[in-house]
Structure prediction request, 446 residues.
Amino acid sequence: MIKLIVLDVDGTLTDKIRKISLDAIENIRKAISNNIVVSLVSGNVIPVMFGLKTYIGINGPVFGENGGIMLNDSKITPFFDKTLPEQFLNEISKTTSAREMFTNKWRETSVAFTMDEEDIKTVLKKASESGLYIVDSKFAWHIMNKGQNKAFAVEHLKKLYGINNSDILVIGDSDNDLNMFELDVHKASPSNASQNIKNLSEYVSKYPYGSEIVDIFEYYNVI
Amino acid sequence: MIKLIVLDVDGTLTDKIRKISLDAIENIRKAISNNIVVSLVSGNVIPVMFGLKTYIGINGPVFGENGGIMLNDSKITPFFDKTLPEQFLNEISKTTSAREMFTNKWRETSVAFTMDEEDIKTVLKKASESGLYIVDSKFAWHIMNKGQNKAFAVEHLKKLYGINNSDILVIGDSDNDLNMFELDVHKASPSNASQNIKNLSEYVSKYPYGSEIVDIFEYYNVI
Prediction:
């Protein structure tokens, strides 16, 4: 029986330009009223996640920076720091088109940037040499510490609530969700998900961009 | 004809515990698709306003800290600074129950705090002596600079878009909205608004907490 649902945000609850699905919010609220714990895990910054928690009415902790930082009951817990990611971004900014995102001022455990297509290969190589973890959330590139990913957040929640893998449902669409899709939990995705995510999904909805939520929630009997 | 709508958030688009009304979001999106510019002005921090702008799909600038800071097209413009408000909070923290809000780390032009009932009178007196502006948003007390209020934001938008007072509709519910309700623009409020706000409203809806939005938008022919 599902006790905890972990949701990615962009592309999973939203459309391509990040407008959130009202139908998704409605069904999240229904699941919460059925005593399911819902948690959000995103590449976004923690104050944005705080806003989503507040205005949607999310009952579980929310994670920003791909799992690197958690907000629960007005308490912020960073699990990593951004010294190494910041050094890396400073370094590549000198020789490539990498441009800092304005949201970095609110990041505590990672940095985000955009770059021109032609620099991607070079930067990925440098990141792999540096031992850092780099991921494309479709809206930005994120440089994080080793071990900083969404599976880390799911493992943290599992311990926090003292539940089993079979009690957990994760929903995501992009390759920055892959780590949590490699866990032995229930996994579902919208029709717009990447092929990698679909391959690891237990259930793939035929609906995209937030409209899959009601379908997936019905499939798993949480509403 | 209304060209610009300025919306307060907490209590105007949300219920008492700050869950946002999906019906309000739906009607805001409708007004935007009718080429109305919609802007949000709140006591909240600017990254939370950035999140609301992104996920609702707000087309105008958003203001945080009661008008002290604006975000537009990924550019943040602070119009004040928080040196004096911060000094004030440090000072009163020594002798009263004033407790800093955890969101202050994301504030750039003001500070927010909570305090026990019995200290309110003393703190208001000290604030008035210090020449700062203090306001209760129902969720926290906010200390701001002189001239930092929601009317400042409305005047800024008026210049930005080169429009007249009669083109502007403001909607709010609390006494921290009073400054903008003193302007000679169109003003409307939900049924949960304070008596001061209702007295200054051109139209008071009989619906509360976000469900007034469709009613007010129909009254002003923006949807």
Q: What stands out?
A: Chain B has a mean pLDDT of 96. The first helix of chain B runs from residue 22 to 33.
